[in-house]
């Protein structure tokens, strides 16, 4: 099997965008401890009157949505969540890869070699693991 889906962490981009990054991050911390000594803190900033939602990590503010960016919330939340995890994995041979997107979004810890093997074995590029980007068309998901 190209990917061991028993290792898939279910996320859902909609849940992340609707003030769910903090909860998903807390849920992932036990598994993250397999790879790093201690997960770094994040802080959620939510202003329902604006409306806006952002994450502060390493003193950097990552905007999930604010007026004018509401339509990009799912993609931005996906990018931000994976960015925070992968920042912390720097220097070790594992990354947290996205699998699928939108309501089907999941994540999986893989080595670059495991990712490449999955890409060779999976015929449909949308099934490939990927590192999300801030490119607003597909946010890094291959097509």
Give structural notes.
The chain is of the alpha+beta class and 143 residues long. The protein has one domain (5-127). 32% of the residues lie in helices and 21% in strands. The protein has helices at 13-32, 73-88, 112-121, and strands spanning 9-10, 42-47, 52-57, 60-65, 95-99, 106-110. The chain is globular, with a radius of gyration of 15 Å.
What does the largest sheet look like?
A: 3 strands, antiparallel
Number of helices: 3
What's the gyration radius in Å? 15 Å
Q: Which overall shape is indicated by the principal axes computed on the Cα atoms?
A: globular
What is the CA-CA span between the terminal residues?
A: 21 Å
Strand adjacency order, main sheet:
1-6-5
Structural class based on helices, strands and sheet pairing: alpha+beta
- Portion of residues in beta strands equals 15-25%
Which percent bin holds the helix content? 25-40%
Are there runs of 5+ residues with pLDDT below 50, and where?
none
Number of strands: 6
Q: Can you tag this structure with a few keywords?
A:
143 residues, alpha+beta, 3-stranded antiparallel beta sheet, 3 helices, 32% helix, globular
Topology, please?
Elements: E1 9-10, H1 13-32, E2 42-47, E3 52-57, E4 60-65, H2 73-88, E5 95-99, E6 106-110, H3 112-121
Antiparallel strand pairs: 1-6, 2-3, 3-4, 5-6
Helix pairs in contact: 1-2
Give a brief description.
The chain is of the alpha+beta class.
């Amino acid at each position: 099997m190209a990917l061991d889906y028993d290792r898939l962490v279910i996320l859902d981009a909609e849940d992340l965008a609707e003030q769910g990054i903090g909860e998903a991050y807390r849920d992932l911390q036990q598994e993250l401890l397999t790879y790093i000594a201690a997960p770094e803190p994040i802080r959620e900033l939510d202003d329902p009157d604006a409306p806006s939602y952002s994450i502060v990590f390493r003193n950097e503010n990552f905007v999930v949505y604010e007026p004018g960016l509401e339509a990009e919330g799912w993609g931005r939340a996906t990018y931000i969540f994976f960015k925070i995890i992968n920042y912390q994995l720097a220097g070790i041979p594992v990354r947290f890869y996205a699998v699928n997107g939108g309501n089907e979004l999941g994540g999986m810890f893989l080595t670059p070699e495991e990712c490449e093997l999955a890409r060779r074995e999976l015929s449909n590029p949308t099934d490939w693991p990927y590192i999300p980007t801030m490119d607003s068309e597909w946010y890094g998901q291959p097509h």
